[in-house]
Input
Amino acid sequence: MKQIPNILTLSNLFCGALAIIFILHAPEYIAEFNGTDYVVTNPEPVYWASALVVLAGIIDFFDGFVARLLKVSSELGKQLDSLADVVSFGVVPGMIMFRLLRSAYFQSPDVFDVSYFNLAPALLIPCFAAYRLAVFNLDTRQAEHFIGVPTPAVGFLVASFPLIMLYNPYNLAHWLENIWVLYGIIFVLCYLMVSSHPMISLKFKNFSLKDNWPRFLLVVLTLISIPVLRYAAVPFVFIAYVGLSLAVPPKNSIKNS
Output
C-alpha cells in the first residue's frame, strides 16, 4: 500500500518524459511535387506536451492526497515527488519556452545569425525550478502556504502557451511571437519561483469564508474564466493567483516572516 503514492509520482515523471519526446520529435513525410520527392518536416507536436503537463499536474495532486489518505507519507515520497516535479514542471516548460523562442527567431530577418546562446535563457526555468524544489524540501514554513510560486503553477502557465499559439484566443499568439515578451516571461517566472513572497495554498483546513475568502475567490475566478476565456484562462488565473497572494498574504506567513 505504501508504494501506491510512489507509483503515482513516477507516473507524473513518466508524463514529463513523454512530453519531452513530443517536444523533440518532428514527424517527417515524403511529398511528391512535379515528379520529385521531397522530405517535409512537420513542426513538433508541442501541444501534446501541454496536455501531458496538465495530466502530470493532476497526478501530482493525487499522489500527496493518496499518501495522506492511506497514512503512508514518507521522506522518500517527498524527495521522489520533487525529482518528478523538476522534470514535469521544470524541464518540460523550459523546453517549451526554448521551442517558442526558436519559432519567434525564425520570423526575424537575421534568423541565420541566431545561435543557441540566444535560446539558452529558456533553460533557466528548469534551473530555478530545481532550486525552488530543493528549498521547499528543507523549508518547514511552507506547510500551510507557499513561499514563492510553486512549480506546477509555472508548468501549467507555460503549458498553455502552445495551445494559445494554436487557437489564438484574443490574438494572444501575437505576443508569444515577440522575442522580448518571451524573455520577460522567462525572467519573471524564474524570479517568482525563488522569491520570498508568500503565496496562497489551496489546502483548506476549514471552509470558513472569513479564513478562506481569497481561496474561494480564486476558485470562482477560475470557474468563470474557463468558459469565457478558454485557453487564455490559464494566464488570467496565474496573474490573479499572484496578484491575490501579494495583495492578501496568507495569515500564517505574517507570523513566520
Remarks:
- The beta strands are 28-33, 36-41, 146-147, 198-199.
